[in-house]
UniProtKB/TrEMBL annotation, chain A:
Residues 1-27 form the signal peptide. Gene3D superfamilies: 1.20.1250.10. It holds the Pfam family PRF. InterPro entries: 4_helix_cytokine-like_core (IPR009079), PRF/CT (IPR010681). This is Cardiotrophin-like cytokine factor 1.
Automatic annotation (TrEMBL), chain B:
It is found in: Cell membrane. The keyword Glycoprotein applies. It comes from Dipodomys ordii (Ord's kangaroo rat). The gene is Lifr. GO terms for cellular component: external side of plasma membrane; receptor complex. InterPro entries: FN3_dom, FN3_sf, Hematopoietin_rcpt_Gp130_CS, Ig-like_fold, LIF-R-like_Ig-like, LIFR_D2, LIFR_N, Type-I_Cytokine_Rcpt. Residues 1023-1058, 1077-1088 have a biased composition (Polar residues). The keyword rRNA-binding does not apply. GO terms for molecular function: ciliary neurotrophic factor receptor binding; cytokine binding; growth factor binding; leukemia inhibitory factor receptor activity; oncostatin-M receptor activity. This is Leukemia inhibitory factor receptor. Belongs to the type I cytokine receptor family. Type 2 subfamily. GO terms for biological process: positive regulation of cell population proliferation. It is a single-pass type I membrane protein.
Amino acid sequence: MDLRAGDSWGMLACLCTVLWHVPAVPALNRTGDPGPGPSIQKTYDLTRYLEHQLRSLAGTYLNYLGPPFNEPDFNPPRLGAETLPRATVNLEVWRSLNDKLRLTQNYEAYSHLLCYLRGLNRQAATAELRRSLAHFCTSLQGLLGSIAGVMAALGYPLPQPLPGTEPTWAPGPAHSDFLQKMDDFWLLKELQTWLWRSAKDFNRLKKKIQPPAAAVTLHLEAHGF
Amino acid sequence: MMSIYLFWRQPSQMVDKKRMKTSDFRWLLSKFVLLYLMVQVTGALRDLKCTTNNLKVWDCSWKAGFESVIDEVCIEDRSYSCHQVEKTNIKIPALPPGDHVMTVKSSHSPANSLSKFILNEKNVSFIPDTPEILSFSADFPTSTLSLEWNDKGSAFPYHVNVTWEIKILRTERRELIKLETYNTNLNGKDRVHQWSWASDLPLECATHYVSIRCYIDYLHFSGHKEWSDWSQMKKIPWSPNSQTKVFPQDKVVLVGSDIIFCCISQSKVLVAQIGSTLCPLIHLDEKNVAIKIRNISVSENSGTNVIFTTDDNVYGTVIFAGYPPDIPQKLNCETHDLKEIVCTWNPGRPTGLVGPRNTNYTLFESFSRKYVTFKRAETFINESYQLFFQILPDQEIYNFTLHAQNPLGKSESAQLVNIMERVSPHTPTSLKVKDINSTAVILSWHLPGNFAQINLLCQIEINKANSKQELQNATIKGAKNADYLIDVNKLNPYTKYTFRIRCSAETFWKWSKWSNAKQHLTKEAIPSKGPDIWREWSSDGRNLVIYWKPLSINDANGKILSYNVSCSSHEETQFLSEVLDPQHKAELPLSKRDCIISVVAKNSAGSSPPSKIPTIEIPNDDLKVEEVVGIGKKILLSWHHNPNMTCDYVIKWCNSSRSEHCLMDWKKVSSNSTETIIESDQFRSGIRYHFFLYGCRNQGYQLLRSIIGYIEELAPIVAPNFTVEDTSSDSILVKWEDIPVEELRGFLRGYLFYFQKGEKDTSKMRGLEPGRSDIKIKNITDISQKTLRIADLQGKTSYRLVLQAYTDGGVGPKKSMFVVTKENSVGLIIAILIPVAVAVIVGVVTSILCYRKREWIKETFYPDIPNPENCKALQFQKSVCEGSNALKTLEMNPCTPNNVEVLETRAAPKIEDTEIISPVAERPEEGSNTEPENHVVVSYCPPIIEEEIPNPVVDEAGGTSQVIYIDVQSMYQPQAKPEEEQDIDPVVGPGYKPQMRLPINSTLEETAAEDDIDKTAGYRPQANVNTWNLVSPDSPRSTDSNSEVVSFGSPCSINSRQFLIPPKDEDSPKSNGAGWSFTNFFQNKPND
């Protein structure tokens, strides 16, 4: 879970580069037509970067939750946190999804997860944790924008949030601190699984839609994390 | 009619109330005794028992015999009353104290019996009614049980003490966990009582039951008082929430307390843990379990997790262990601007609780009854805790109370302040400086705040370079958010100042912080005085050189631009020159020798007053050069007061090695002074300076004194050059030169002259340490002396001469020279003539004596000897001559030679060879045959000749300890073939065999040696002849084997020529030449 400081800065620099290039994604500004390939690549890279960022964040946050949440073999059943979007899916089902459905599910999942994360940020008791969470939320917001860009480039409409289904963070007497911690634990876990799944989705999409030879790709060295 | 009277018997003692209360068993036992003692009719009526529950009515009952029917019960009271009854009990009004006879008539009994009982209050039991629980409720968050019941006091119209006993039971097993006694009293009215109890186990964890009974202690009742029956049990109506499984939830507890957690579970709980620590399970009803945590420690920010793990799920809760808020420390309320009050405090010990459980602070002002609250979810390290309270118009006194509260408790701290006395203004800003003139400025600054009601006290810090900082205080009328002005006077012109300011209220509480510093350069003013001037005539007397010193910063009052030099006489003033600033002298041709030179310094503000000096120099013939030495880098000059000197005195000085018109510096002293101290950074030790004291009179300067001196004297750095002018056989004349002033470095005080005998080479090795007897010293204190004659020397002897100069600063280096005195011819002649004369006299005397005693000498030394040839009688037979030569001495044959030439025919070399080949040491048998003449031993012990040793082997065995000394030289010899020796060594048998080390030169010898080894395995003393003969070739004995071997030195065994104390090998060559023997001594002498 530990990410070296130098790597963090490197990742941050890459993220800034990615975000800097987001307005240049043709699918977003629709001024040119180099195809969706570069934006898919960038989204893929951003997903990988978020994976690494999440490892650092999860380490900090699980330590904040205290034992046994920060113990490596702690694996409670997922009984609470029903409202969290599940990333786990049967392989056959996953294969049977088309690109549009796949991207839509990604978009919807991250929309929900982002909302939960912001609630997490409001609950965090230490400033350092809030900064880390805010930073990650910004990154996740970037990923959401990136997915939206890919969908737009491919001509898919963005999913409309159903009225009343917008997840809200409602800490109340019904939600005990322990259940809250369980939710937080599962939120982080689901985020991780979703990022794995997204990386796989975008990789598949990337291979499917071959980018033009002149497309600028931004490759993140992700080994060793 | 036969009647049997059964009497109530008084119990031996009344059953003690306390005993009853404490033990049901005892109560039953006493009751049994009571029943036993009851009077009864055998076979008819028995076991009469009377009880009461309200002290008003007695309920008496008895047991009847078979088919007995009671018709009438009569009681003898004040009035005899009878009651018809059909049961075996009767309720009668309470009887007064005393015995009463109760008659029970049973008409249907076979005997138609009449039973009599004695009734007494003492035999009546008082058993109160069973209490009734009105309500039994639970407060789950606090785990508190509450019980309500009615005491039914209206039944007792008098004051009675009541004891209630409440018991709490837990779980379905009805385990008693609490038995509480609760005392009240009855006062004739019905009252509802409440009792509550906090359970350590959360009430959700198990079913809780309660029951109550009472005991009424009515003192006026003399009968038996008993506990009521237990009330009916009540239990907590609790239906567990389906979601929550672990209790308590999200509880805040004090650090160090004990707490029980339970888990309501349908499936079996496997593990329970707090944090990462496993806890033992306490089993409750069904599958519910609990854990008990003792002495809980402070929680992390997110609380401490308690987890129960079942087969299929994980249940948990979070506990927050912390502290109640500490008393706020160092509460301080003050204002910076008289608009709002800021109160700061230190929270003290951390509570360990954050987020919604963090401490809430409320600042309450009691006069205005207003308050402000402080709420922060997060606690930062070194966070400043402060609250702002708006100042209220027309209120100066504020009584603040700071309340701190968190879920574990509350605390408070208070302060009463007069806010007008607690003003600590903000830091002044926008500090500006404006010139008024060269010595005054105006400072302005801005101070936010509503200070209209008070006066401000401001402090100005004035910093000047190289000067002590100055603080000025000023009181200013306060205003609202205003700029304030103040003027600062008494500044120096053209000086860089740094100002900064801080303020407080006039009723001082605290200074504000210092404002930013502001630098300012004041304006220039005209120089306050003229420069210090001096003049010198040039060497040719034509030009006058005018010197002046630059003005000090304080006097210049600005940047000096130029100097104007003019010459004024009686008639006119002549402008001579304008010299720009960096130059501080002017050389001017002066047509008139008598004028007053004036110099004026100018800056942008104007000209200084002129400095004047006359040009005339009054001669002084009565001058002599004096000497002075400084004290501690200073020179003290003093002079006699001279009333003629009307202006001033001037001391100028220069380095004396420079030219006469040099000028380093000068100093002016007032005319009434008689001394001055001169010091200068330019002064150096060991340098001669020339000081000139001038006096000023009649518009001219006269040189009064001329002084040379040193700040500090040092030793000369060179030795005087000296030469030998003349040398005789017993004296030397030395002459030397002066040392230059620069190298002398002090006033010369004398010379030190050393002389000693010594060669050039050896003397270099020796120093001139004082006290050495051979060194003679002469101290020449007359520094004018330049020559020295050294007398009483020896002729033809080398002398070392050393000369060094000294000052008060020390002795200079040495210079040395070697001189050989001339030969003394008279002494030589005498030395030759005296021995010759003595020899001649001795010869003459001897000749005379010999001449006079010639006859005696001849008889003594040279008597006449007859010639045997001329004697025929001496011609004997040869055999006769051999047989008895004593008888026929005179019969010598005419063959007797006059002269016998003896040729060396002895076989000495042969013997030597033999010895070399066959060392005696290894053959003691042969050693006995050795010529005794070869070994004449000179020793302190009787000479022992080897011949006399019959059996050396026996001697070895006997360990003969006689010691002889032989020549040390003979011990050493070159050892041939040391490698072979080493090879041989292992063959040698055990025991010490030093002889094996001896050289063995042939195989034959080896064989012989080995044989000997076989024969004598022990120590075999022996002498190797070689060792004696191989001495130094210089030794006479080495060539003559027959010569006496004189032995000294190291002891050796009688049977051995080996030394018992062999010297080291490396010493051997020396030993050859330096053995401790007379022979060696003589032998060695030529080598020396």
